[in-house]
Specification:
This protein has 434 residues and is an alpha/beta fold. The protein has 2 domains: 163 residues, Alpha-Beta Complex (Aspartate Aminotransferase, domain 1); 252 residues, Type I PLP-dependent aspartate aminotransferase-like (Major domain) (Aspartate Aminotransferase, domain 2). It has 13 helices and 15 strands. The chain has a 7-stranded mixed sheet with strand order 4-10-9-8-7-5-6, sandwiched between helices. Strands 1-2-3-13 form a 4-stranded mixed sheet. Helix 4 runs parallel beside helix 10, helix 11 packs parallel to helix 13 and helix 12 packs across helix 13. The two termini are 34 Å apart. The chain binds pyridoxal-5'-phosphate (PLP).
Length: 434
């Protein structure tokens, strides 16, 4: 019996299946872009703990910050005993988030909580209830988070009733255009549709926020074309509706800029949510936005016991130092260029790959049964992630049909590890294409 099978048996007896693990490995240590399982097997990590390890596992600067803070104090609760790291991090994010206006930041624990707090704040500031979100969106698993999320299985199935006053608009999914048009001839009809949405679906005067991921993560790394968010922002501004951009998965340098929305020049979201890679694996999320919105909820209206935990804040400060001063964002962009070239090369040779998309190192390939019908190749994607795991590569799928393969490798991955990972991936595609 391997250490894995022994643990797996104990797991099956003691932990509910709902808290599923897509990859069958128990990890004993991880460093950089490599995880080692309990049987001593090394795994190249293209998943990064679902986009959390942009700076890599056990980055020495992050570990040092965590250790130093843990030895001083682990928790006081921000509402009871304040500390400088919270202020330092808020000030830094207020500068890093785009927008030529005064900003404020508050912290929570998870991406879902960041979304919840952004929506609560937007509702408070506008005195309105409705939230417009998008098809294929993912915003978390809490009641409001899953209500805003699009995909039914596994996130919403039998978990209702859902939160009210949520309206879902079509998104800029060019490969499967909801309007059956093609870019650029479409003239961004999907963005303009929001105007119609405000006539047919919900009144703009009842709308507290429009909430969007700049590149949809769980939904399939769906990347809107240039000009899209400028158009969405213009419509929001016309109706005085705050625009919330959910950067939980796309932020912290994943796309080659600190935030993905920076790729749509001139877009200045009213509120931005961040989590995942922000604190290098420590639970932390941030809501950064216009001071006049952020500062509206009454004294004591927002927060939580662990929100903005000092160890997490110190870890996040270290992550920012590594991303900017050690220029790891640039390295991430270089990795993206390499990976994109390889994925496009595979696409040219294997019919299975319908589209390669994304920005920076937030890249994905959508697998299809044939390129004409674009029938999702869900089983192939499942098989591919399984085969890759067996050969030592941790890889994640995403997309409403589970047919999209995404890359979320740490930026500290060495050229050798990257090459080996891509090699395993290509072999997997090759075998499936036989
Ligand atoms: C992962 C994710 C969330 C939810 O974050 P949790 O920390 O799991 O609650 C929200 N929004 C986006 C875009 C995400 O990718």
């Amino acid at each position: 019996m391997t250490a894995y099978t022994a643990l797996q048996e104990r797991r099956a007896r003691s932990i509910p299946q709902g808290a599923y693990s897509v990859t069958p490995g128990f990890i004993q240590k991880a460093e950089g872009a490599v995880m080692t399982d309990v049987d001593g097997r090394e795994l190249i990590d293209f998943a990064g703990g679902i986009g959390v390890n942009n700076v890599g596992h056990a980055h020495p600067k992050v570990v040092a910050a965590i250790q130093d803070q843990a030895a001083k104090f682990i928790h006081t609760c921000w509402h009871v005993g304040m500390y400088e790291a919270y202020v330092d991090l808020a000030e830094k994010l207020n500068v890093l988030v785009p927008g030529d206006f005064d900003k404020m930041t508050m912290f929570a624990n998870s991406g879902a909580e960041a979304v919840e707090n952004a929506v609560k704040t937007a509702r408070y500031a506008t005195g309105r209830a409705a939230v417009v979100c998008f098809e294929n969106a993912f915003h978390g698993r809490t009641l409001l988070g899953m209500s805003l999320t699009s995909k039914i299985k596994p996130y919403k199935y039998k978990f209702g009733p859902f939160a009210p006053e949520i309206y879902r608009a079509p998104f800029a999914y060019c490969y499967r255009c909801p309007f059956h048009l093609s870019h650029p001839e479409c003239g961004l009809a999907c963005a303009d549709h929001l105007e119609e949405f405000f006539i047919n679906q919900v009144d703009p005067e009842d709308t507290a926020a429009v909430l969007a991921e700049p590149i949809q993560g769980e939904g399939g790394f769906i990347t809107p074309p240039p000009g899209y968010f400028q158009r969405i922002q213009a419509i929001c501004r016309k109706h005085d509706i705050p625009l919330i951009i959910d950067e939980v998965q796309s932020g912290a340098g994943r796309t080659g800029k600190f935030l993905a929305i920076e790729h749509w020049e001139g877009v200045e979201p009213d509120l931005v949510t961040m989590a995942k890679s922000l604190a290098g694996g420590m639970p932390l999320s941030a809501i950064t936005g216009r001071s006049e919105i952020m500062n509206t909820p009454h004294l004591g209206g927002l927060g939580g016991t662990y929100s903005g935990n000092p160890v997490s804040c110190r870890a996040a400060l270290a992550v920012l130092e590594v991303l900017f001063e050690d220029k790891l964002i640039q390295r991430g962009a270089e990795i993206g260029t390499k990976v994109r070239a390889r994925l496009e090369d595979m696409q040219a040779r294997y019919e299975l790959i319908g589209e390669v998309r994304g920005i920076g190192s937030m890249l994905a390939m959508e697998l299809v049964q044939d390129r004409e019908t674009k029938q999702p190749a869900t089983e192939a994607a499942k098989q591919l992630t399984r085969d890759c795991f067996d050969k030592g590569l941790v890889l994640l799928s995403c997309g409403n049909y589970g047919n999209v393969i995404r890359t979320l490798m740490p930026f500290v991955i060495t050229d050798e590890q990257l090459e080996k990972g891509l090699q395993i991936l290509e072999e997997g595609i090759q075998e499936l294409s036989r």
